[in-house]
Write a structure and sequence with these properties.
The chain is mainly alpha-helical and about 100 residues long. Helix 1 packs across helix 2 and helix 3 packs across helix 4. The chain has a two-stranded antiparallel sheet with strand order 1-2.
């Protein structure tokens, strides 16, 4: 297992919820928990991912799984600003 806290948390989230989370979804949750990224654009840039993939994952985490709360959206850049929901915080805290 990596020494990086983000990688460790992602791996634990994926192990603890097989089939429920994608690697990108686990990354969004872990980064929010660790204070590394609170919006889709920042997360996409830090991990070298397509912004559209991250937006799609954030919407799924919020609407389908209730693990994120979407605080705001930028019409111009499509950036999604988010925070962990109570359920999301509990899931990440348990994994960490």
């Amino acid at each position: 297992m990596e020494d990086d806290p983000l990688t460790r948390t992602i791996e634990k989230l994926l192990e603890g919820s097989p089939g429920q989370l994608t690697p990108i979804g686990a990354g969004v949750l872990a980064a929010a928990h660790l204070g590394l990224a609170r919006d889709s654009r920042s997360f996409a840039r830090k991990l070298g991912l397509a912004h559209a993939l991250v937006i799609r994952e954030c919407v799924s985490l919020a609407e389908d799984l209730a693990l994120l709360v979407i605080d705001d959206r930028s019409c111009r850049s499509q950036r999604v600003f988010y925070a962990l929901s109570e359920r999301g915080e509990a899931l990440v805290t348990e994994a960490a």
